Amino acid sequence: MESTKTIQLKIIDVDNDLVETMQKYSEGMNYVSEVVFQNGKVIPARKLQRIVYGYLREKLGLKSQVSCNIPRQVAGSYKTLSDQIKCKKSEWQKLVYTPSSMTLSYKRDYTITEDSVSITTFSSGRKTYKIQNYDYALQYFKEPWKFAASKVVKHYNGDYYFHLTVSQEIEEPAIEKASTFMGVDVGINYLAVASTTDKKCKFFAGGEIKNKRNIYSKMRARLQSKGTLSAKRVLKRLAGKEQRFMKDVNHCISKAIVKFAVQEKVSVIGLEDLTDIRENTNGKLRKKQRYLHNSWAFRQLQSFVDYKAKQVGILVEYVNPEYTSQTCNRCNHISKNNRKGLRFHCETCGFELNADLNSARNIEHRTRDSRYILESQGCLSTIHTDT
After folding, report:
1. In which domain, by residue range, is 88 found?
2. Spatial separation of the C-alpha atoms in residues 166 and 255, rounded to whole Å
3. N or C terminus of the chain: which is more exposed, having fewer CB within 10 Å?
4. Predicted pLDDT at 226
């Protein structure tokens, strides 16, 4: 299986050539977006490339590889929009791109060393820019890591960063040989609760973090009520600070979760498939709870667990999240009355447990079941014959 990681490296000596290149890139993106929008439906990437390649090369003067990257990227964006329309979450609209991001192919559009990145610019060809590297990132410049398509991104504070994507192939463990599973329930009161097949568990508290998020929320409300230009500038800085804070928290928690899994010799980590979780639960939440729930980076935490687990050879399975918080881990009785806040009490068998731990055990059970379901369907084979 492939393990990927993105490292953000600040570009120190940004010049007009790089800025112009990003502006031309967004101009090309918007031209291709207009073509798709006027078509009224998604155009496959290869067909779209044939339609727009000549204009991108001859009229806009973009390089050949960039002229291939742009239609692929736009086609992908409209495919996502189309999927959202099918789910009635959006409507057909023209996607507009700003000169804040540019995708580059390794070797064709960029090369990189530990202290510089060479980028093909629009008017001056290849130019080398200094980057601010970090001790932790140096490991990704060595084997077995390989460079992949990466991005130049303008951050909210105006600084430019090179988002370097690296990947490596890791031997995928055989799920049929898995013996120890772990379920991880993510939440707000506890950022995560992990439980293994042999009932070993670990709690990752979120109370202090929840309080800090509430402080950010109150500060945001005060600034929004003012509505001045200076208040809007502070709001922008505050949003970036809060995002960085949560990202750091999620990195720390995911690292601890995977460390616990390694310690307990876990073969497979089970996570809930949280696709559409916000849409499915917003109607059940009080208005005051919606901001905290909607802005909580559940999926980011899961993605960090996912790639960190892969780096140490642990499989990750996503399971159906329905009723994991209402199902009794002992007798499988399902009722919304079973859960009262942080307490789980089964109204049928009387089983009592911390509610999040009960959910984690249910996730572990479903993850374990997925292995046997695959086997029963013939997707796995544990029968060996002599030849």
Report:
1. 2-167
2. 19
3. C
4. 80
